[in-house]
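Each field is set out underneath.
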Amino acid sequence: MKTSDAQRRRWIAQAIGLGASGAIAGCAPGRPAGDAAISAGPGRPARPGALPWRGATDPFSLGVASGWPRPDGATLWTRLAPQPLQPGGGVDPVPIAVQWEVFEEGRAAAVQSGRIDALPEWAHSVRVEVRGLQPHRRYRYRFMSGDAVSAQGAFMTAPAPGRTERLRLVFASCQQYEQGFYGAWRHAVADTPDLVVFLGDYIYESSWGRNHVRKHDPGVPHTLADYRRRHALYRSDADLQAAHAACAWLPTWDDHEVDNDYASNLSQRGDPPEQFLARRAAAYQAYFEHMPLPWSMAPQGHSMRIYGAFDWGALARLYVVDNRQYRTPQACSLPGHAGSRVVGPECLDRLDPTRTLLGHEQEAWLSQSMRDSRSRWNLLAQQTLMSRADSKSGPGEAWWTDGWDGYPQARRRLLESVRQAKVANPLALGGDVHAFYAGELHEDFDRPAQKPAMIEFVGGAITSQSWPQPRIDALVAENPHLKYGEGRFRGYGLMEIEPGRVQVSMRGIDDARVAATGVRTLRRFEVREGVGRLEG
């Protein structure tokens, strides 16, 4: 199905323009559609005693979202929270009956509808795994309970297997609430993506940085109620809500969704593992409650598998990974501090070949998934800068242990597996470091003349503050495989994938501290199919 950019802009404007009281003309709430009705969770049938919303305040204050689209459907999300920063979101601890409807673009009658219960044990969040839709079609959806009607959302189903329709995606990360407004999301919506790939640090558990424009709720979250409140604060932003309503998301996390620099079962401060795992369980549940993830990714205590492969027909496969939950703790940590640091050649532990960033099980899954791929383009959606980044100019070395430089043998194993799998046109996406980068990844970075194993793009940060530009310039000069580095602008990456080429635009906003900020394209790159070199 072909859709012009002008049509898509009109459609997105329609999808996000209705408030919680907005209605779709000519559509009444639908009856459950037979086998389209979805249960409230794995093994949790809808409860017959649940009643619809009776309050006077809009319960859909946190908007709507969709994620992980398939050729025949997607996961739809909302949460009932009329007072999102209050305990329980301002909802009594009873199930609430919610209806949902899905409409094909341009048609008034619902093609799918059903009823689901919003349960207090999941913070009255709702997720509907819709099936039975047509591939590569645009759909809109809404939720209803009592007299309340949510905003509309939109998503496109993935193309059918074997098809190579183009893909336009935004990749982004790092949206510290205090350090800026979410004007970058407003411009990302205007760029009409089919998909958003979010690469971590959706919330921040701590207050930091300079020149804050707004404030977190007080304190650092440790309990489930704390993390629910922090997610609700971020979700209350209108520009972020619009970005979720505009298209489907593939989200993954990094550290700040739980605790800065955490590694597996260790916090940054080296708390007792059993204490930290209880905190991690709370953080994971709150994350799941606020993200459009399928029920197959639901947390099991302090564990939650969020990695997986996503296919856009035969054009592109995205490997969405988790580099926090299974990693070996950072090398050469200081006593009483389990997080990262900058080390030199004296840190021999960094070179231990048993160290892993993804965990050995996830490494094996990724290798097998790449071997199975028949896609024209293969994208690794991971959290941070993958390139070797020696931060000491001139003689000597300095490595940051929280990123891939803290796990160089794991990085080499990954890049070797890309070569051995003969992956077609491999690209890496990253975030975390609050700056834009583009470069070439090598199994041996001391032999840059060889064909790169992958091409890398890091898409800046939505708001989070960066190093001074002279420091980034020095890093690029010291590491010739890095072809571009820019930290003066917040923003995101815009990627357009076609069978014969990929174009990447680094989109920088003028000032994150200004809600009505403008945007510009800082740099545009191209990778041609089969060439495997960065151009632009």
Remarks:
- The helical segments are 5-17, 183-190, 224-235, 238-246, 273-289, 360-372, 408-420, 469-478.
- Residues 5-156 form a domain with the Immunoglobulin-like fold (CATH 2.60.40.380).
- Confidence is low (pLDDT under 50) at residues 7-45.
- The longest strand covers residues 519-528.
